[in-house]
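Narrative of activities, Objective 1.

The group set out to show that a structural description can be obtained from nothing but a protein's sequence at a throughput compatible with the screening campaign. Below is one input-output pair from the validation batch, recorded exactly as produced.
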Amino acid sequence: MPYEAIKHLHMTFAGLSIIGFVVRGVWMMVESPMLGRRLVRVLPHVIDTLLLVTAIALAVMIAQYPFFAAWITAKVAGLVVYIVLGMVALRYGRTKGVRIAAFFAAIVVFAWIVSVAMMKTPAGFLAG
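Output recorded for this entry:
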């Protein structure tokens, strides 16, 4: 598959991932029983796995790898932070306030990851 096709798939999965996260975050805030549905629990993992697979394919295609390309390393580090914040927001936050704070922090981290990808600099939108 050509680079542009993989890149567009990657961006599509990124968009689906954040949309799904926002919907689940809103459901968490309103305490919706939808969060307990099987599809809601499984589909994000499928989307995020496809997002990761396309990310690896892109990294190989452009020969840019974590710990060798600073902006890729920043994206991976940001991804880890995003995952941890997402887990706190949707599952492990002890109070609703903690879950809501983690939810909004995760969205900011996601936006930063996108800015790193667009600018190809580790600082992303923090570069000023």
